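name: query_chain
kind: protein
chains: 1
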Amino acid sequence: MRNSPLPRLDASPGVRKQLLPYCRLQPGEIWTDPVRGHRVGCLDAADPHSIHRLMNAERAQLAIHDPPYNLAAFEFRSIKSFIDWCEKWISITESVLTTDSSLYIWIGADQNNGFQPLPDFMIMMRAHPFNTRSLVTMRNQRGYGTQKNWMAVRQELLYYIKGNPCFNVSAEYTDIPKILRGYYKKVNGKLTENVQRSHSNTIRAGNVWVDVQQVFYRMEENVSGCYAQKPFKSIERIIKASSNDSDLVIDFFSHSGTTLLASELLGRRCFTVDIDPIYAEITIRRLEHFRSSFRKGWQNGHPFQDEIPSFDLDDSIDPKDSHQKALI
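structure:
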């Protein structure tokens, strides 16, 4: 195992400068996978022309979006500016989804700043032709907090639908043991506990996910440098529940490429974009890496380790002036 992780790329301009020459996509360009027909674009999610060029008249059954919403974004953009930007890519998403489709959005709730952007985003969504289905909470194993507040260990996931899409979650059981006991129902006149009425020792997936491991450097799926990587298991769960074999999945904020990789493993096609050439390249390399090694990530190595085994770190530029500012 190599021990050469990338630092956070949004806060490491010196490393970014070294990586850019190895990115095969320039802004506006699209890579098409010759094996399965996936597409990766170095495109702006809020530009309708770019996204429609990516789609090439096709429509998707499922969208999974993880827009940048961490604190760095709000140092430069007001909540109104952020919501106005979200309005654009949500409208584009609606235009490229099928009549019966699902939309999942990872979105934050800053407990130190009015729980933004979650409430304003939810209000904005009321003006769009999506029906609300659920608010999922995924628990992190690590969190942040102080002695005067509850530890923050959750991530929010909004689930919307258009029309009457598929939902296959009844076939999937989690790793969560069925430990909750109680008398809930009479069967043949006898009170029974919930554990007596099922042959499974585990529970079906609900809207609180406590069985998903937060990604960290010791995990095979880790992609160092990516500051907001979602666990493979969480994306896999969404794709299994809200799409079928050969369906098309879209993701407008590819980042570490998890949606593309999960789609590959589950027999779906994926069209995904990232405005940053480095994350677009990481997405392509992660797919290629899996096909050659059957590994989901680089653990404590990194996607460019063959070209650049080590880095000349120059982080003299304030991270406030780097990638995150340009995303919105």
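note: The two ends are 36 Å apart (CA to CA).
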